[in-house]
Every structure is written in C-alpha cells, then in structure tokens.
Amino acid sequence: MTGQPYMAVADRDRRLIVRLVILSFWLLIFEGSLRKWVAPQYSQYLYFIRDPLTLYIYFVAVRAGVFRGQSAFLHVGVIFALLGSLLAIVHVGLGGGQYTPILAAYGIRNYFFYIPLAFVIGRSFGPDDIIALARHCLFAMLIAAPLAVLQFNAAADSPLNVGRATQASLQFDN
User: What gap in Å lies between CA 59 and CA 120, rounded to an integer?
Assistant: First the structure.
C-alpha cells in the first residue's frame, strides 16, 4: 500500500480533520431531516450544506500535506473527475438535450467531490478515531431506527414520508 499512515499528519491538523469529518457526518445525517421537516423551503440549498465544510477539510488536508505521496487510487479518481467534467462540459456545450450546466455540476459533485475525503480520512484517522466514528454511527442508528419504523408504518402521504412542505414541489416522493 502506498501512502503513509495517519501519524504522518501533524497532530493538531489531524485532530481538526477528525472533528470536521465527524461534523460532516452529523450534517449528512440531519441534512435530510432539515430539508424534509424543518426548512423545506430551503431544501435545495440545504442539500449543499456540507460542501463548504468539505472544502475546508480539503484545505486543512492540503496545508497538512495529507495528499503528498498519496495512493494511485486517488490519482485515478482525480483523472476520472477531470474526464467526467470535460465530458459534461462538451455534452452541455453541444446542446445535450435536457441537461443544463447546473445539472452537470450537480452530477460532478455527487460522483467526484467526495472521492478525496476517503483518502483524507485514511491518512488522518487513527484507530481511536475510527472507534469514535463507529460510536457516532451507532448513536445515529439509535436515532434513525425508530424513525424508519414509523415511516414504514405511516401512510405514503403522511408528513413523516413526504415532509411538511405545503407546496407539492417541495415534498419528497416515495
């Protein structure tokens, strides 16, 4: 395996990255709830709530040298991201039917934006950090499991399943 173990990152930066990744995890968990029940009118913006935080994680990782000597898999992911971006630009430029630049950017974000995060975590998390993240996952499961049971047993048009937005365009389809 190429790349250095997590200790290669300065401890201050490593701890900051760990805290930011765990915060990003909780934003991922609660983003859906915020979009569906708390502020459905801001749903399209809340979908991107983690992106600035992820960019900051990447900034700290670059500053800490996390990407130096990184795995060939990261390089392949970056190449795919660049090729995918180039293809999206060409497709939209040639009048790619229903696709717009915003939709292309959304797809690139979904498929490629988070690839480096796995490598940052691999370089920055130690065994204790992984155990802590696992604890967060277990706690999130304790929150999510009862909600999943309630949603399963609720009617398809229940606010538990479609959200509390009054406009149909802001409601979630099942």
Answer: 11
Query: Helix, strand, coil % (nearest 5) of the chain?
Result: 75, 0, 25
Q: What is the DSSP letter of 65?
A: T
SS3 for 27-44 is HHHHHHHHHHHHCHHHHH
Helix pair angle (72-93, 115-124), 10° resolution: 160
On whether the CB atoms of residues 95 and 43 are closer than 8 A, the answer is no
For residues 85 and 106, is the Cβ–Cβ distance under 8 A?
no
Contact 174/161 with Cβ under 8 angstroms? yes
Retrieve residue 77's tokens.
């992911």
R_g of the chain computed on alpha carbons: 19
pTM, whole model, 2 decimals? 0.79
Whether 142 shows a pLDDT value over 90: the answer reads yes
22-58 per-position pLDDT tens digit: 999 999 988 888 888 888 888 878 888 899 999 999 9
pLDDT on residue 156: 79
